[in-house]
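Quick one: structure tokens for this chain, please?
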Amino acid sequence: MAKQKTFALYNRPRLESLQGIELASFKRRAIAFIIDLVISFLLFFIVLIVVGLFLWYRNTGGEFSTYSFSFNAHSFYGRLVLNILVPICYFGLCTYFTNGKTVGKKVCKLRVLSLTGEKLGLWTCFERALGYGASFFELGAGFLQFFFHPNRRTAQDCLAETIVVLESD
């Protein structure tokens, strides 16, 4: 199969089916994101406690003694697991298994929709979760892109080819 040399509009029927759908406001998206961040931080602390208990049990056999445990969250692996994997797994898996609704989005009556298909794929959800990190590393510019993009898309939306819409009742 020969490669195309010119741009072709992909998935025209899907894009046409989304024509006229109401996009989410920045305020609702921000509130949903804050709710999800709080949940992500709670999961972070739960994982920290579980890992700490596991390491304590592994090192002491479950006996209370003078054993001093400290989980070094500042180590490379501590930062990797707690600061990166927990939020990515929360945002990615939650979006995937609910087909576009994290807890925050559900509360704010929002849904993430794919521009390429009816259902969000697992990779698309993880791309979107990674896009939150990209938006932070751009000093928030990825989030502010909302105000300049004609379809109110932020960096994570552009990366994953998604839009966030107001859920109809």
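The chain has seven helices and two strands.
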